[in-house]
Amino acid sequence: MKIGVLALQGAVTEHIVSIEKTGAQGLPIKRAEQLEEIEGLIIPGGESTTIGKLMRKYGFIEAIRDFAGQGKPVFGTCAGMIVLAKRIDGGEPAHLELMDITVARNAFGRQRESFECDLEVKGISEPVRAVFIRAPLIKEVGPDVDVLTVYKDEIVTARQGNLLVSSFHPELTDDYRLHQYFADMVEYSAAANQ
Amino acid sequence: METGTSRVKRGMAEMQKGGVIMDVMNAEQAKIAEAAGAVAVMALERVPSDIRAAGGVARMADPTIVEEVIKVVSIPVMAKARIGHYVEAKVLESLGVDYLDESEVLTPADEVFHINKREFTVPFVCGAKDLGEALRRINEGASMIRTKGEPGTGNIVEAVRHMRYINSQIRKVNNLSLDELYNEAKTLGVPYELLLEVHELGKLPVVNFAAGGVATPADAALMMHLGADGVFVGSGIFKSDNPEKFARAIVEATTHFTDYKLIAEVSKNLGTPMKGIDIASLSPAERMSERGR
């Protein structure tokens, strides 16, 4: 099973290392045609404005919408969550507009307010170490969105069908259970598509 | 909940990978940089080439400029403090700067000691021209390394030299046997534990960017080809004829550094690049890369 990581900018190699721990093959994706080679896609952390611009420039907006439209899973962490959202708080134009959530960018403040802590994620038995870096959070969710983690009354992990998002960076720890959760989603969808 | 941990600080640098960090001198330039796809901006009073031309003592930027830039962009804002100038760094941290550069571009405040960067909540980037310097800075708490290059010259040769040298030293350390490592740590003047980490990882334990002399999209791509995790561009962008176009071209060449047709395309009609300085024409005192060991 092949899972791609959008490799326009950001923490690409860390995601590939985490994916490979689940037993799947990790692949950096630089061109839209490469989406045909993979069964699931991760949009990594980085700068959402940079990633969003490069996605537009290289035809990734339509291509990823098609990819997700076929039921193939997409996982966005931090900046990845921002680009998947239908709405961005403050009126900034949204990017992929796939997931029925409203996100607020840099919601916890500047870098000096960035932090790590242990959090419960629905569907994962023990708490995970969550690293928040100038992280966004989810302000509102649509009716089809399942909230997986709440931190201080704010939503930081959620799922809507084949779409998974987290405010924090599971790829920065050795714990790959959230990647395993995603790999299971990919395996399930790949089996269903056959 | 913990802030300012090594993971949070180094993680911040990981998020910048594959990106371009641009020097800006005011809010307007910051907006141009952000619109072009910069992953961060470095707020400065003068770019390195102007510092070089002006001479005298170069210090931290006026806080007004830093605040003005923080106000207008949503991407991270960096700022430079003089080597060893703890108070400049604390002042910049108090303004809400996301990343500090303890930089040889400014006139050093201390010719022996660097800032103890572990005491800060925000991460630091520091310049290095060899593995010894890189590991000493990491030991002091730097969360990101960049090549020193020779800032403000528009000449890539020193950045190339430093990147190649650091990488060749890492390859050597990677191949040493465990009983040879301790002696190598002594020779390099670095902590054994850090050298052991490099030996095991086969790379620095933090992100390593290229800086100091990047003047064209092809320069940026060359540094990525040599193994840089990303690129700092100082004087090149806002000294060019068309900063907006130039900035976009550098971002695209950095992302697609092996796509030579694309680099050709974005390099078209960029106007006159920085004139540049031949390094051989600089006296040792004029070389910023000799500052801070």
UniProtKB/TrEMBL annotation, chain A:
<feature type="binding site">
    <location>
        <position position="105"/>
    </location>
    <ligand>
        <name>L-glutamine</name>
    </ligand>
</feature>
<keyword id="KW-0456">Lyase</keyword>
<dbReference type="GO" id="GO:0036381">
    <property type="term" value="F:pyridoxal 5'-phosphate synthase (glutamine hydrolysing) activity"/>
</dbReference>
<feature type="active site" description="Charge relay system">
    <location>
        <position position="171"/>
    </location>
</feature>
<feature type="active site" description="Charge relay system">
    <location>
        <position position="169"/>
    </location>
</feature>
<dbReference type="InterPro" id="IPR021196">
    <property type="entry name" value="PdxT/SNO_CS"/>
</dbReference>
<feature type="binding site">
    <location>
        <begin position="133"/>
        <end position="134"/>
    </location>
    <ligand>
        <name>L-glutamine</name>
    </ligand>
</feature>
<feature type="active site" description="Nucleophile">
    <location>
        <position position="78"/>
    </location>
</feature>
<dbReference type="GO" id="GO:1903600">
    <property type="term" value="C:glutaminase complex"/>
</dbReference>
<protein>
    <recommendedName>
        <fullName>Pyridoxal 5'-phosphate synthase subunit PdxT</fullName>
        <ecNumber>4.3.3.6</ecNumber>
        <ecNumber>3.5.1.2</ecNumber>
    </recommendedName>
</protein>
<keyword id="KW-0378">Hydrolase</keyword>
<comment type="subunit">
    <text>In the presence of PdxS, forms a dodecamer of heterodimers. Only shows activity in the heterodimer.</text>
</comment>
<dbReference type="GO" id="GO:0042823">
    <property type="term" value="P:pyridoxal phosphate biosynthetic process"/>
</dbReference>
<comment type="similarity">
    <text>Belongs to the glutaminase PdxT/SNO family.</text>
</comment>
<feature type="binding site">
    <location>
        <begin position="46"/>
        <end position="48"/>
    </location>
    <ligand>
        <name>L-glutamine</name>
    </ligand>
</feature>
<comment type="function">
    <text>Catalyzes the hydrolysis of glutamine to glutamate and ammonia as part of the biosynthesis of pyridoxal 5'-phosphate. The resulting ammonia molecule is channeled to the active site of PdxS.</text>
</comment>
<comment type="pathway">
    <text>Cofactor biosynthesis; pyridoxal 5'-phosphate biosynthesis.</text>
</comment>
<dbReference type="GO" id="GO:0008614">
    <property type="term" value="P:pyridoxine metabolic process"/>
</dbReference>
<dbReference type="GO" id="GO:0004359">
    <property type="term" value="F:glutaminase activity"/>
</dbReference>
<dbReference type="GO" id="GO:0006543">
    <property type="term" value="P:L-glutamine catabolic process"/>
</dbReference>
<dbReference type="InterPro" id="IPR002161">
    <property type="entry name" value="PdxT/SNO"/>
</dbReference>
<dbReference type="Pfam" id="PF01174">
    <property type="entry name" value="SNO"/>
</dbReference>
From TrEMBL, chain B:
<feature type="domain" description="PdxS/SNZ N-terminal">
    <location>
        <begin position="6"/>
        <end position="211"/>
    </location>
</feature>
<feature type="binding site">
    <location>
        <position position="213"/>
    </location>
    <ligand>
        <name>D-ribose 5-phosphate</name>
    </ligand>
</feature>
<dbReference type="InterPro" id="IPR033755">
    <property type="entry name" value="PdxS/SNZ_N"/>
</dbReference>
<comment type="subunit">
    <text>Homohexamer and homododecamer. In the presence of PdxT, forms a dodecamer of heterodimers.</text>
</comment>
<feature type="binding site">
    <location>
        <position position="152"/>
    </location>
    <ligand>
        <name>D-ribose 5-phosphate</name>
    </ligand>
</feature>
<comment type="function">
    <text>Catalyzes the formation of pyridoxal 5'-phosphate from ribose 5-phosphate (RBP), glyceraldehyde 3-phosphate (G3P) and ammonia. The ammonia is provided by the PdxT subunit. Can also use ribulose 5-phosphate and dihydroxyacetone phosphate as substrates, resulting from enzyme-catalyzed isomerization of RBP and G3P, respectively.</text>
</comment>
<comment type="similarity">
    <text>Belongs to the PdxS/SNZ family.</text>
</comment>
<feature type="binding site">
    <location>
        <position position="164"/>
    </location>
    <ligand>
        <name>D-glyceraldehyde 3-phosphate</name>
    </ligand>
</feature>
<feature type="binding site">
    <location>
        <begin position="234"/>
        <end position="235"/>
    </location>
    <ligand>
        <name>D-ribose 5-phosphate</name>
    </ligand>
</feature>
<dbReference type="GO" id="GO:0006520">
    <property type="term" value="P:amino acid metabolic process"/>
</dbReference>
<keyword id="KW-0663">Pyridoxal phosphate</keyword>
<dbReference type="InterPro" id="IPR011060">
    <property type="entry name" value="RibuloseP-bd_barrel"/>
</dbReference>
<keyword id="KW-0704">Schiff base</keyword>
<dbReference type="InterPro" id="IPR001852">
    <property type="entry name" value="PdxS/SNZ"/>
</dbReference>
<protein>
    <recommendedName>
        <fullName>Pyridoxal 5'-phosphate synthase subunit PdxS</fullName>
        <ecNumber>4.3.3.6</ecNumber>
    </recommendedName>
</protein>
<feature type="active site" description="Schiff-base intermediate with D-ribose 5-phosphate">
    <location>
        <position position="80"/>
    </location>
</feature>
<feature type="binding site">
    <location>
        <position position="23"/>
    </location>
    <ligand>
        <name>D-ribose 5-phosphate</name>
    </ligand>
</feature>
<comment type="pathway">
    <text>Cofactor biosynthesis; pyridoxal 5'-phosphate biosynthesis.</text>
</comment>
<dbReference type="Pfam" id="PF01680">
    <property type="entry name" value="SOR_SNZ"/>
</dbReference>
<dbReference type="InterPro" id="IPR013785">
    <property type="entry name" value="Aldolase_TIM"/>
</dbReference>
<dbReference type="GO" id="GO:0008615">
    <property type="term" value="P:pyridoxine biosynthetic process"/>
</dbReference>
<keyword id="KW-0456">Lyase</keyword>
